[in-house]
């Protein structure tokens, strides 16, 4: 719905929206401003996802661009600024969806929240929710067990270094 509102505003204005326009509309819509997205998470996702300004097929054949923004047209080309803007929008949306599905995430420290947000961004929310035993271990504070569950997964075999770092962050509560 938010995209439709912004599209309508651009049409009514008859010109591109300024950052002030976007900030005002985000506030009216209740969308978190950029400053409300944890910058450690943004930097981790930039490192983990990598930046591609031309659309490419990801490992499962989905056209993707920017920092892992999926389901785009094959001819899509972005600027770095566009990729960073969309990353923040995607993270804001993904984090809100994950909080709605597992509200206890907000009781975790920021490092462990970011681990789950990062995994959810990479796997999709439904993919992360498939880690039932790991999530239960996180929910109940058994972080070493959660870390071991993360490393024992097919996901860990696929993303390798990312999984090792995130599992270490889950186990210790410290950014790796």
How would you sum up this structure, described in words?
The chain has 176 residues and is mainly alpha-helical. The model has no long low-confidence stretch (mean pLDDT 89). It has a 3-stranded antiparallel β-sheet with strand order 1-2-3. 22% of the residues are buried. It contains 10 helices and 3 strands, in the order H-H-H-E-E-E-H-H-H-H-H-H-H. It folds into 2 domains: 1-31, no CATH class; 37-48 and 79-172, Lysozyme (Orthogonal Bundle). The protein is 62% helix and 7% strand.
The top level CATH class name of the largest domain? Mainly Alpha
Distance between the termini: 37 Å
Largest β sheet strand count, sense and barrel closure: 3 strands, antiparallel
User: What does the radius of gyration come to?
Assistant: 17 Å
Q: Identify the overall geometry.
A: globular
CATH fold-level label of the largest domain: Lysozyme
What would the average pLDDT be, to the nearest integer? 89
Q: Structural class from helices and strands?
A: mainly alpha
Helix content: 55-70%
Low-confidence stretches: none
Give, in spatial order, the strands making up the sheet with the most strands.
Answer: 1-2-3
Oligomer: single chain
Element-by-element helix/strand order? HHHEEEHHHHHHH
Tell me what portion of residues adopts beta-strand conformation. 5-15%
